[in-house]
Fold this protein.
Amino acid sequence: MGNKVGRPSKKSVETTAVDAKQQIIDAAVRIIRKIGADQLTIRKVVEESGLSIGTFYHHFRDKDDLLMYFVKEESFAETSLDTPLSDPAGRVCELYMHLIRRYMDLGTDFMAKFYTTGNQALSAYMGAETGSFAPDTVMYRCEQELSLMKEQHILSPDSDPHELSKDICTLVKGCVFEWCLSSGEIDIEKILLRILKRYLNCLLTE
């Protein structure tokens, strides 16, 4: 007896999917663009992707883990930087542009609805826990770079790399927010570099 003709079952779709994780991510992007990150739910992602809840949990622990993907896709500990330590503003700008370009690829329509106070995953990633940043984050790497600059007497011995990294993270958030407000029209790299120069150059030892 031949197979029934019609729409394949959810199970068969999942077993033949090349990349179920990417389907989940793509579904999340579509939902966030429509209604925002605050309104994202696992049920909505499952319905949008056509996958099962079991498949979702195979790839992500929960909603926050999925949202974290968009800011923590790679380890910044391995990020290669070309700008020398002797140019603190340029080096920090280069580091953060690795993250910002990922935002730019997602588009302002996505980021405007992702960069919200209700996005707890973003808040957790872009913040410090128990006085320190989580390893592999851009803030942690930034603090390491600033510490090296201090050790090599590029930055003032009175400078506090952790506090500087916290401040820089705040400056970056502001630039991303302004980029969203301008619908992507501003040159975010140029603006960020200008602000970082004004902030960090006064701490140079020479």
User: Anything to note?
Assistant: The two ends are 84 Å apart (CA to CA). The mean pLDDT is 86. The longest helix spans residues 161-181.
